[in-house]
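User: two proteins, same treatment. go.

Assistant:
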Amino acid sequence: MIHRVVGVVLAGAALLSGCAASSSSQTQPDSLSDTSWTLVAFSQAAGNAEVRPARSDQYRLSFQADGRLVAQVDCNRGSGTWQAAPAGSGSSLHLGPMAVTRMMCSPDPLGQRLPQDMEAVQSYRIVNGKLQLQLVGNAGSYIWARAQP
């Protein structure tokens, strides 16, 4: 009798874990969880030329599985939170307030802009292996490439 109860409990646990795995994959089809990205460019919606960082390896976003966002912005470091959910053709993305160090970095057109824009991100898409973070009001988008481990 004990063996039968243990077998039923184990089977139930396996079934529930399978349901949990399938429901999490449905909520984030192109999940950002446990991914890191380096900045390629900022593209303004008005059709102006792209703005590229002086050194793309100095700009990195890491989306942690626990909802933390870790960032390198030029010579500064930052951290905040992230939460994504499906929304039409793209997925809605909310980036919480980001705490960023304020070291004096070499001049770079994106060094000051990027931290200010993080809270204005409204959605993301992954197209041809590139992450696109779209700003609210079609103010532009940040384009990121998957970081090498």
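Protein 2:
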Amino acid sequence: MGWLWFWIIVAGIIFFLIIRKPRILRTQFRRLRERRRSRQLKIINHYRRKQGLQPLKAYYALDKIAKTHSHYMAKRRTCNHAGFQHRTDRVRRLTGSGYVGENCFKYPAHRYSTRIAIKLVKGWMKSPGHRANLMSPNYTKIGIGIVTKRGYVYATQIFTN
């Protein structure tokens, strides 16, 4: 009878490690992604409300497109809008919208935090073109992609209506 309990316990551990744990990790990563997005979104919507604009709403499908571009920038250690037309076409097919905008940023930091989110948004607000995207009444949805790599935070925002 002692061996039976041993094998039941071993089977339970294997079940947890192989089947249950990945699901738990996926949930933790989803929460982390949502926290990263919500930090930036709260700051952006604060600025928009001060201007009498409607707040932007998070759009998960746009998050994925923005995150892909942030990974692209991190891999190349640059900040650019390369491939913007391709992303625009994807967003238009996905949402059917006419307006698409994008903001990108590369900021020296080893991790993403609320302080970094504030610095990113303030940096965009200082740039007329980026500020125009953030404050455009034409945009109602936003996707945010954040990647931290090699001592930098790479951020992409994609806007649409």
